[in-house]
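cron nightly-structures :: item 1 of 1
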Amino acid sequence: MCPILFHIGPIPIYGYGLMLATEFLLAMFLAQKDAKRFNIPEDKLSSLFPWIILAGAFGARLFHAIVERPSYFWEHPLEVFYFWDGGVTFYGGLIGGVLTVWIFARKNKIPFIHVADFLIVYTALGQVFGRLGCFLAGCCHGVPTDVPWGISVNNPESITRPLGIPLHPTQLYQALVNLITFLILYKVSRHKKFNGQLLLIYGLTYPLGRSIVEIFRGDSIRGFVID
């Protein structure tokens, strides 16, 4: 794992942050190109994405602070805004994103379920890059293993513990689950039969894959909510 990929002058470029940026930009680009197929006005959609990014990022960080490390952030409240340090939770980002989409759909008089169906396809794709970011940062790692594809981490800057011991690369397992979920959603979206169909499929496939990956998770600093 490589938490810091390189420096631009004195500024470190974090792998996790770069993957998150890639996640958002790619999802935005592809969703914008696909908006017409879902009969969603492209101009209105372009105004939605910045708000999703802000609400999703803040929700993910705030959820992590309140649920997983409340005592630490109570003593260091300003560090809630240190997004570059890592420490975000998907469910917090999802809550922030859902609220933003609900407001958007209500304001533009578009059925919320229809917009959510459209966006969940690219949410699944974005999660692939999010998990690659976890892999670079060293978080969300697996338990020790002797399988041939086990990965040892020796970089002390990595969040992974213990160092120097082969671990299941659960971040890559989850990235694969998310990629499969995206491919299923995208294929079904070409012949969607009812509003909510894609949300339903995501709600079935993602938890199933996630529950399997959780068997191999070995990170302990996650609080009481699965990250």
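cron nightly-structures :: done
Strands lie at 4-8, 11-14.
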